[in-house]
Automatic annotation (TrEMBL):
GO molecular function, one term: S-adenosylmethionine-dependent methyltransferase activity
Oxidoreductase recorded as keyword: no
GO biological process: methylation
Keywords tagged on the record: Methyltransferase, Phosphoprotein, S-adenosyl-L-methionine, Transferase
InterPro entries xrefs: SAM-dependent_MTases_sf, TPMT
Record protein name field: SAM-dependent methyltransferase
Pfam families xrefs: TPMT (PF05724)
Transmembrane segments: none
Species annotation: Sphingobacterium athyrii
Length: 196
């Protein structure tokens, strides 16, 4: 099966044309609740495929000090940079996720995994593991459902994800998310995976 060409131009055009149906307009409550209760304020955090960076805004308001946003779409990254301005707690990078090389204590997953062609999922798992500090954490949300049309978004299920992540991560949590937004209630898994 060929990998879909979901490249920089594809995503840049989606943002230019405001075709961003995945954007809920605010930070995911599940991710913010997790960050508030688990992540130290000085931990280094990466948000790949950051989109409009609603999670980053909420985390900065909570006092988090070391957030990196990563997205491949230049139009979006320019908008996000203008929205946030220059602040020392935030780094915004326009780059392909698979080319990124820094390491982090935490990586937050919010509608990035589901935007990647499923043929790239093993590469995603390996890359996430390489971007984490030893024993670092991947936390966030994955869809626990399939979608009727060819993606993105691309769905999946718990069994598939367990198989995908088990070699590089200890699965601390992978369960139905209790505080999903209403339109995704019952169709998301909250994950907390620790690099082995």
């Amino acid at each position: 099966m060929d990998i879909l060409d979901l490249n920089k131009d594809y995503w840049d055009n989606r943002y230019k044309n405001m075709e961003i149906g995945w954007d809920i307009g605010y930070a995911s409550p599940a991710i913010i609740k997790y960050a508030e209760t688990v992540i130290p304020k000085d931990a280094s955090i990466l948000i790949p495929g950051c989109g409009n960076a609603h999670e980053a805004k909420a985390l900065l308001e909570q006092g988090f000090e070391n957030i990196t946003l990563l997205d491949i779409a230049p139009t979006l990254v320019d908008q996000v940079q203008k929205a946030f301005g220059e602040i020392p707690q935030l780094q915004i990078i326009c780059q392909d996720f698979f080319q990124h090389e820094q390491q982090y204590d935490y990586i937050l997953e919010q509608t990035f995994f589901c935007a990647l062609d499923p043929a790239l999922r093993k590469s995603y798992s390996s890359k996430i593991a390489s971007l984490l500090q030893p024993r670092g954490i991947l936390a966030g949300l994955l869809f626990d459902r399939e979608f009727p049309s060819e993606g993105p978004p691309f769905g999946g299920n718990k069994t598939e994800y367990q198989h995908l992540f088990h070699s590089a991560f200890d699965i601390l949590k992978m369960e139905t998310c209790f505080n999903s937004i209403s339109q995704r209630q019952g169709s998301e898994l909250f994950i907390e995976l620790r690099q082995k």
